[in-house]
């Protein structure tokens, strides 16, 4: 009996350790400078959502300087009291739907980097950490888009003209060759 109890205890412990929170995020998000972006983070847990559920969002800049806290949730959302994301991050999740997303307002190039989302849901305190790489790009002005469209359209039109000319020349040569062969056959 003792041996069976030890084996059962080891199996239950392994199952308890395997019961972990899994966090899901997009790998990369691209946003335009000056806009707002929702950073989606969802989770799955083998346990029901508990009152002890906590969410931590952190930021690692591209220059690999120190991590910065972005957002924290424990029974209610807590915005950062200071730092680059003060007054620029809001809660955009729904715990009951296993959604712990945030909204980052007025993006800047200095926001380029990796955001991490970590969820603990007692007793599932172990699990994966979601990572989202954010790239903030400059706006493309209408004149640049217009120039690009004209360039691509012109190149496409020129290519169609060249291909059509090559086909017409080949058909003309083939007809001329066929006429010469007919004339040689009739002689």
TrEMBL record:
This is MPZL2 protein. One of its GO terms (biological process) is cell-cell adhesion. PANTHER family: MYELIN P0 RELATED, MYELIN PROTEIN ZERO-LIKE PROTEIN 2. Residues 1-20 form the signal peptide. The keyword Hydrolase does not apply. The gene is Mpzl2. PROSITE patterns: IG_LIKE. Its main location: membrane. Keywords: Disulfide bond, Glycoprotein, Immunoglobulin domain, Membrane, Signal, Transmembrane, Transmembrane helix. Residues 19-135 form the Ig-like domain. InterPro entries: Ig-like_dom (IPR007110), Ig-like_dom_sf (IPR036179), Ig-like_fold (IPR013783), Ig_sub (IPR003599), Ig_V-set (IPR013106), Myelin_P0-rel (IPR000920). It is found in: Membrane. The keyword Glycoprotein applies. Gene3D superfamilies: Immunoglobulins. It is a single-pass type I membrane protein. Belongs to the myelin P0 protein family. It comes from Setophaga kirtlandii. The chain crosses the membrane at residues 145-169. GO terms for cellular component: plasma membrane. It comes from the Eukaryota.
